[in-house]
Design goal:
This protein is α+β, with helices and mostly antiparallel strands and about 525 residues long. Among the domains are: about 150 residues, Orthogonal Bundle (Neutral Protease, domain 2); about 80 residues, Pdz3 Domain. It is about 30% helix and about 25% strand. It has a 5-stranded mixed beta sheet with strand order 6-9-2-1-12, with no helix packed on it. Helix 2 runs parallel beside helix 3 and helix 7 runs antiparallel to helix 10. The longest helix has 25 residues. The N and C termini lie far apart (about 60 Å). The structure holds zinc ion. Zinc ion binds next to helix 3 and helix 4.
């Protein structure tokens, strides 16, 4: 097995990256290392020509740099101009990205906060192309040129300091790429509750200790529910000038942005991480278009149901989250799309992506009621099926959508595939009145379809895009390109018939308040009380 050893060191202008690959044995023209130009919209580091150097047993290795088409966009490639002998060593300085952070881009680029740095390895490590059978070590070395005292620490997705305590199996370079790192004065910049810890370089403006303790408890309850020991899980907080949170999932860790000067929606941060925690255990095997509804729907379902059952979220909060999800799914202008049709709109409309989440969650709630009714003692539940899935997967079995349907069919004595097809994939199903029962009752009420006459992206970018002539926003005076102050999407979805969306237009230095009345169509939406 080949072994890659990566050593990171903090220097004045960034991170000094050194790695060595044993017995690389590259022939002339072979690729030594590569780095994508950007990842999910986040810029990777710039490496000036001749700045990256490589050596082997013979000495310095001449390199040729080029730009090639990669699977996900342009890739910078460094090729060796002669064959290599023995261990190859690479060295360069990764400088943090200085360009202003854009909203809604995952916070994974290498970025400086105070004296510290954070970022995903994929954004600053020039790595060898994927090879089979490779293990790696990643460690930080104390800085030789900077005065880092005992308050200085480094932490990454896989462990703290030099260690790998993340309990993650696998040794491929994808795992290394996905690893998130943070280093700096972290002595006061973290809080720990059992296996759960939160890390920051800029003090967040909310009660991060209570937040972490709440998450830690949630994490332990989920580990218990899903019959698996918890492993260390880290939440990285990164400062951002933007409202709302951008986030990114990494091995046994999660990074999200918070605005240190703005109001923080703690409830939203908690539910975002709780959703991610479910992903640590729960998934169906198979292609994304087959199983995303389950993986995301189950994360939404259990991140609400488990904390509510255990008293970690109160009843009004639970109900408002369930009812909001129902509005997002069943009052959406896209509500009639099949999941297949929705998947083609992913890039242009975030509401299309939500459909799989919402349908998955309500399918599970509906199935829970069906299983309760089908069991002689009334104790049947969807969790019974989920437990069987987890046990089978731990025994090495592949549990995809077919196996899921077979497990359910066993309990409800009917073919489950048509029910699933219609509810989730077709979008024709509705959660039955006993979903979330017997604690709660459901009624369908007519709610406005949030079709305000501009692109949904306007809620995120706050710049009016796709304003429809004669549409509600257009009639209220909103013009294409206007900078707007307006509620976030989930707030807007909460409006009822007769309400109006309050928007402030900034145009030529003037602020113009307008009110967009929701007089369009309505849709029947299940709501629980
Ligand atoms: Zn998710």
């Amino acid at each position: 097995m080949a072994h890659l050893e990566v050593i990171l060191g903090l220097v004045a202008d960034g991170v000094h990256v050194r790695w060595s690959l044993e017995r690389a044995e590259l022939s002339a023209g072979a690729c030594l290392g590569q780095l994508a130009m950007s990842i999910a919209g986040a810029p990777t580091i710039e490496v000036d020509e001749s700045e990256l150097t490589a050596t082997d047993e013979i000495g310095s290795i001449p390199l040729a740099e080029s730009l090639v088409d990669g699977r996900d966009g342009d890739l910078r490639v460094w090729a060796v101009e002669r064959s290599t002998v023995g261990t190859v060593e690479v060295s360069y300085v990764a400088r943090p990205v200085g360009a202003p952070q854009r909203p809604a881009v995952p916070p994974i680029d290498l970025r400086r906060e105070g004296d510290g740095l954070s970022g995903a390895c994929a954004c600053f490590l020039v790595l060898p192309p994927a090879v089979e059978n490779i293990s790696f070590d990643l460690r930080w070395e104390p800085s030789a040129e900077l005065d880092t005292d005992e308050r200085w620490a480094s932490v990454c997705s896989l462990g703290e300091g030099a260690g790998r305590d993340g309990g993650l199996a696998g040794a491929d370079l994808e795992l290394l790429s996905d690893t998130y790192v943070m280093c700096g004065d972290l002595a006061a910049g973290h809080y720990r509750d059992g296996d759960m810890s939160t890390w920051w370089l800029t003090p967040p403006a909310f009660g991060v200790e209570a937040f972490t303790a709440h998450l830690g408890k949630t994490y332990r309850l989920m580990a218990e529910q899903f019959e698996a020991p918890a492993h260390p899980y880290r939440v990285f907080l990164r400062a951002s000038p933007h409202q709302g949170s951008a986030a990114s999932a990494h091995p046994a860790s999660f990074v999200m942005t918070v605005n240190p000067d703005g109001p923080v929606n703690e409830r939203m941060l908690y539910s975002t991480v709780a959703h991610e925690l479910v992903h640590e255990w729960l998934h169906l095997d198979g292609a994304a278009d087959e199983v995303t509804w389950f993986n995301e729907g189950a994360a939404d379902y259990y991140s609400l149901v488990i904390p509510f059952r255990e008293g970690l979220i109160d009843q009004p909060t639970f109900l408002s989250e369930v009812n909001l999800a129902a509005r997002i799914g069943y009052a959406s202008p896209l509500r009639e799309l099949t999941l297949d049709e929705a998947s083609r709109l992913y890039d242009e409309d975030f509401r299309a992506r939500r459909l799989a989440y919402v349908r998955g969650m309500f399918y599970l709630a509906d199935l829970d009621a069906r299983l309760r009714n089908a069991s002689p003692d009334g104790l049947g539940s969807v969790t019974e099926v989920v437990t069987r899935v987890l046990r089978s997967q731990r025994a090495g079995e592949h549990i995809g959508i077919e196996e899921w349907c077979a497990l359910v069919a066993d309990l409800v004595s009917a073919d489950e595939r048509p029910a699933l097809e219609s509810f989730v994939f077709g979008g024709d199903g509705r959660p039955g009145p006993e979903s979330f029962g017997p604690t709660f009752a459901m009624a369908e009420i007519a709610l406005p379809v949030l079709d305000v006459g501009f692109d949904a992206s306007t809620f995120v970018t706050r710049r009016a895009t796709g304003v429809v002539a004669g549409g509600a926003a257009g009639r209220a005076g909103v013009q294409e390109g206007d900078v707007l102050r307006l509620p976030g999407y989930s707030e807007a979805v909460g409006l009822n018939v007769g309400d109006s969306l309050k928007v402030e237009i900034s145009r030529d230095g003037e602020k113009i308040p307008v009110s967009i009345s929701l007089r369009g169509g309505t849709a029947p939406v299940p709501q629980w009380h």
